[in-house]
Amino acid sequence: MGRVKDAMFATVAVTLATGCTDTAPVTGPFEQSGELIALSGGDAGAANACIACHGLDGEGDGKLVPRLAGLDPGYFVRQLELYDVGQRRHAAMEAIAARLSWDNRLAVANHYADMAAPGAPGTHAADCTPHARQLVFSGDASRNLPACTTCHGGDLAGAGSGGPPLAWQTAAYNESQLRAWRSGRRYGDPQGAMGEVSRLLHERELRAVAACVSALPDAPGRREPRAASLRERRPDPRSGA
């Protein structure tokens, strides 16, 4: 009997010791908060926090750093995936994407999707020449060049996960992306449409279209959250949310 008791005590002791030394990560109630990831960098570290480059309200820097506020979460997550696998190139973003889990990506995407869509980025309607406007809204059938509105929405404020907003971004950013599509440094869009479109544009047209889509007014203010395009967000029982 004494041996049985000794064995039982030994088993309990080992179990308790194992529990005390378990190295499994303990997740806090706010670990998956998109806002916290945007402010702190999440798994990518504080030096890589979204706000460091994209601003506290996701407004971008008014130059080459894009606006994030109001972006469709499906599109947002897809871009992080492309950075992670090297189909979209930017040293900082590639490093950040590689360190964010899928849940972290979705959380921060939902955070920015729920933010108010920004206003026009400060260009002027005069920057939209008649020829550029024609290309934006009607394209050029003689070259099989589709209108920008075909994929990016009639108001260029976006059309779901496959067609990001153009009117919210600066002319400099839109031009840089057209050039990235043209050169092949950026790819991975549906049917490879942007690579083809960018190569069909003449040099002056490329600059003119980039300026034009940035000069046009975008859709009104705040949008409804669009996280359902990926999966339904569930409340975190640990935080009472």
From TrEMBL:
Heme c 2 binds at C148, C151, H152, M194. Residues 37-116, 134-217 form the Cytochrome c domain. It comes from Pelagerythrobacter rhizovicinus. PANTHER family: BLL4483 PROTEIN (PTHR33751:SF11), CBB3-TYPE CYTOCHROME C OXIDASE SUBUNIT FIXP (PTHR33751). InterPro entries: Cyt_c-like_dom, Cyt_c-like_dom_sf, Cytochrome_c4-like, Cytochrome_c_Oxidase_Subunit. Heme c 1 binds at C50, C53, H54, M93. Binds 2 heme c groups covalently per subunit. This is C-type cytochrome. Residues 220-241 have a biased composition (Basic and acidic residues). GO terms for cellular component: periplasmic space. It comes from the Bacteria. PROSITE patterns: CYTC, PROKAR_LIPOPROTEIN. Residues 217-241 are annotated as: Disordered. One of its GO terms (molecular function) is heme binding. Keywords: Heme, Iron, Metal-binding.
